[in-house]
Amino acid sequence: HLCSCHGHAVRQWCGYGSSNERVSRASPGPPFYLWLCAVCRPGPAFPKDLHDLRLLAQQLQQLKEDNFYSLLLFFSAAYLYKQAFAIPGSSLMNVLCGALFGVKVGLPLVCVLTAVGASLCYLLSKAFARQWLLRWYGLRLQSLQEKLNSDRKSLLLVLISLRLFPFSPNWFLNMASPIAGVPLTLFFPSVLIGLVPYNYLCVQSGLVLSQLQDLSQVLSPANVATLALGTVGTLLLTLIVKRYKGRV
Fold this sequence. Notes:
Layout: H1 2-5, H2 7-14, H3 31-36, H4 50-66, H5 68-84, H6 90-136, H7 138-149, H8 155-164, H9 170-176, H10 184-194, H11 196-206, H12 221-247
Helix pairs in contact: 2-4, 4-5, 4-6, 5-6, 6-9, 6-10, 6-11, 8-10, 8-12
């Protein structure tokens, strides 16, 4: 009933507009997508810019009024799909989450989904991507591994600092961490905690989605300065912890 009642909104989410539009079948979604989008073609598309995001948010607001938990499950599945396969555009999903659920629900939801999705990416990389990473990103991987090996005693703080600043390549950290010897028990909390500030900025921007002209507004100079200070603070804490442990 969900798709039949809100076919237009679901079609927009899944990349299927009118009957004359042809959507690529190159990247079929998981079974839950195919079930939810029974009236759509497989190959879910995601909003690519703020215009798409505004249209999608308006349509999904109607779905939210009728069935909040179905929308919550639907959004979570889409978010995990993007994170697990390192599909670009997580900032747009964070903004959408803020527009749909607000900060009180949206922020903890996005933080948990980011950590779970990144962990799925970690596991996929550990199982299948080792040779590919070594071949194409060998020097970058070696540099990361050397940095992590030099700070093993305070590894969690180092991992958090790498996540705090938004220009860190999160997709690379997700895929390279298992190859660099980062245990999942440290990887998960580092993503959960380290991306809180950035996720908050994106989710909060969703509250004023209609006023956003460009995603660069999310990372205004003031916001970037705040995140940079957080990174510096974490690094200083790392140095203090290392010095304390060295004395002990």
